Amino acid sequence: MCPPPDGVIVTLAMTTNPINKEHTMRTERTAGVLDRMSAAAATTGPTPTRALRERVVGATAIALAASVVIQTAVVDGAPTFGAPIEEVLAFHAENRVAVAIAVGLEALNLPLLLGFVTGLHGLVGRRGGAGADWSRLAVAAGATLSAVFALYAVLWIGVVLSAAELAEPSPVFELAWQLHAAAFALALPALGTTFIGAALAAHASWLTPPWQRLLGVAGGGLLLAAGAANLAIADGSALLFVGMPGYAAWLVWLLATGVRLVRARTADRPDNASTYDE
């Protein structure tokens, strides 16, 4: 039988030599450690892109709060849901432009709200995933809130268009106003759920201080409590005002969170960032 070539003998000697095996294993372990260190440095080191994401989400929160404040100021003096229907008709007949501006701002609020809760969910994921369940809740509730507010705006448009053609209230006009009130009442628990989810998610991811978590839970709880009386609110009940402190707390929380995110430093994020799969 012919002997194997010299190259084969050398290869067999190297693979069967214990010293060579140990050297190979050490080299592989060292390479693995270096790879992990490089990956960790790439994911946890300060990067301008991540800071930019936080600033964009923060600017969205500030813009949403500002839009809601302007919307409220534009229709200052509007009748409450329990006001006489004659007063409701007179206001909408005389202030069509103001209502048009408010409804137009509502169209702006929808993408701002969805952009904020979606962006917050992304930030939570990139900071390790703490609070991910709460951020998912905020996204789902925010989508529901957007749909309800869209219905609210559509019914408000119907009210103001009808008012221009009526000399006195009609049953249809009164029904449209009650449906408008009912839509707002149903928006309260959706807003409360969005508020609580966003506040708990942001705090769990070290984006906000403890007082903002308390503000979110308390304000969201008031909105949920008021929303439970949606039938009474649609009929003009003063129970609506139970949720108004929660509504104001939502705006304060948005502004505070937005300012913190705009001023955020990327180096402040924890070492386990980017370990959560969105």
Q: What is the secondary structure topology, with strand pairs?
A:
Layout: H1 6-16, H2 18-44, H3 48-74, H4 85-94, H5 96-126, H6 132-163, H7 171-204, H8 210-227, H9 230-234, H10 244-262
Helix pairs in contact: 3-5, 3-10, 4-6, 5-6, 5-7, 6-7, 7-8, 7-10, 8-10
Structure, explained:
This protein has 278 residues and is an all-alpha fold. It has helices at 6-16, 18-44, 48-74, 85-94, 96-126, 132-163, 171-204, 210-227, 230-234, 244-262. The protein is elongated. Residues 1-21, 37-46 and 266-278 have low confidence and may be disordered.
Descriptive key words:
278 residues, mainly alpha, 77% helix, elongated, disordered C terminus
Number of strands: 0
Model regions low in confidence, pLDDT < 50 over at least 5 residues? 1-21, 37-46, 266-278
List the secondary-structure elements in sequence, H or E: HHHHHHHHHH
Report the sheet-strand fraction.
under 5%
**Number of distinct helices:** 10
Look at the helices and sheets and give the structural class.
mainly alpha
Helix content: over 70%
Rg to the nearest angstrom? 29 Å
User: End-to-end span in angstroms?
Assistant: 63 Å
| Total domain count | 1
Largest sheet: none
Mean pLDDT over all positions: 83
Question: What general outline do the C-alpha atoms trace?
Answer: elongated
